Amino acid sequence: MALLPILEYPDERLRKVAKPLERIDAALQRLIDDMFETMYDAPGIGLAATQIDFHQQLIVMDVSEEKDQPLVFINARIVETEGSQTCQEGCLSVPTVFADVARAERVIVEALDRHGEAFRLDASGLLAVCIQHEMDHLAGKVFVDYLSPLKRQLVARKMDKRHRQQTPTRAAG
Ligand code: ZN
């Protein structure tokens, strides 16, 4: 297995819209394992393929305390939503930034698992938040899109500073 590089906001590749995944093969199983390893290592509770620059509808997730309930969603669709909740969210693509986002309290999702078997999941609370957050990634959306323009500006500045610190300057060779 291998750790995959995670794209960071405001990378334009986070804006690509993922296409339906068409082939479930051995290469995909390896990719799924690598995505889990990358997510657990970060550490995070969900990772959408968009974040590792793979633009097909694939999400891995584990919101359990013990990190022993891995979930894979292929070609997921939210077929029903109910209620609302506001939760403080973070994102592996926007490190160190946390903000309140309003989401549906409950969602019903239909998807394929890693073996291509169809399943239906009735999710609420944190799991429902995570599903909506990751499905947004596949649609080219990032959670900071929901913030006010002023807050988004602060986030952009923070990320810019972070990326400048990581990139060697020309003078340094
Ligand atoms: Zn995210």
SSE arrangement:
Blueprint (H helix, E strand, L loop, with lengths): L25 H16 L4 E3 L9 E4 L9 E12 L2 E5 L9 E5 L2 E7 L5 E7 H14 L10 H18 L7
Antiparallel strand pairs: 1-2, 2-3, 3-6, 4-5, 6-7
The structure holds zinc ion.
The site of zinc ion (ZN) has 5 residues, from helix 2.
In short:
Helices cover 28% and strands 25% of the residues. It is α+β, with helices and mostly antiparallel strands and 173 residues long.
Explain what the structure shows.
The chain is built from three helices and seven strands. It is globular, with a radius of gyration of 16 Å. With 173 residues, it is α+β, with helices and mostly antiparallel strands. The N and C termini lie far apart (33 Å). The model has no long low-confidence stretch (mean pLDDT 95). Bound molecules: zinc ion. Zinc ion binds next to helix 2. Residues 91-93, 133, 137 line the site of zinc ion.
Unreliable sequence segments: none
Largest sheet: 5 strands, antiparallel
* Each distinct ligand: zinc ion
Largest sheet: spatial strand order: 1-2-3-6-7
What is the first-to-last residue Cα distance?
33 Å
Number of helices: 3
Estimated helix fraction: 25-40%
Q: Averaged pLDDT, please?
A: 95
Beta fraction of the residues? 15-25%
- Alpha-beta content class: alpha+beta
- Tell me the radius of gyration: 16 Å
The tally of beta strands, per DSSP, is: 7
User: Which sequence of SSEs, written as H and E, runs from N to C?
Assistant: HEEEEEEEHH
Shape: globular
